[in-house]
Amino acid sequence: MAARPSMDAGKGLVFRREVEPRDVELVRSMAESTGFFSAEEVLIAEELVRERLDKGPESGYHFIFAQECPGAGPNGPMRTGCTGSTVQGMCTGRTVQTGGSGRAGEIVGYTCYGPVPGTQSSFDLYWIVVRQDRRGGGIGRALLAQTEEAVASLGGSRLYAETSSRELYDPTRRFYRSAGFRQEAFLENFYAPGDGKIIFVKEIA
């Protein structure tokens, strides 16, 4: 069975899988905020959203967006009665006591994933991004758990993730390992001289 978000990781968040036109700008803004991606990579992230909008599921790209419920935020504990459901993208949970920034309903992270063409049950995690000012709060873990559940529901059994070998991406590699991924391959100098590609995999089923 696919992992589910822990109470702490998922608290104060709702998730949506429908892609909307506004997500092109949201994805660009979130990717740029991290400082991890080049301008070319940010353009690729935007293009995947457009592909999904144009072609729907036939594009092979699936998305999950994490949205804060009212009262959630970096400036205080999350104290909401969020039910984890959405109506037209808005949190349906009743705010019991606001303890955050008051910026209700903000999109704070997303994943993009899809089946690997020509395989029976392998999926790629193309992108996992958490907005820079929300990193370290369990949003990435919650998004990953939601993604694993979605992959399993689509018949996936293995989830692959790729990242750079550069020192900048040490936190990314630690994140994958702590989430149960193992290193499957290392391609030396793949991206550039001195910048290899590390491929991780996690069994989902």
UniProtKB/TrEMBL annotation:
Keywords on record: Transferase
One Pfam family here: Acetyltransf_7
Stored InterPro entries: Acyl_CoA_acyltransferase, GNAT_dom
GO MF, one example: acyltransferase activity, transferring groups other than amino-acyl groups
Domain N-acetyltransferase: 25-205
Record protein name field: Acetyltransferase (GNAT) family protein
Organism in which the protein naturally occurs: anaerobic digester metagenome
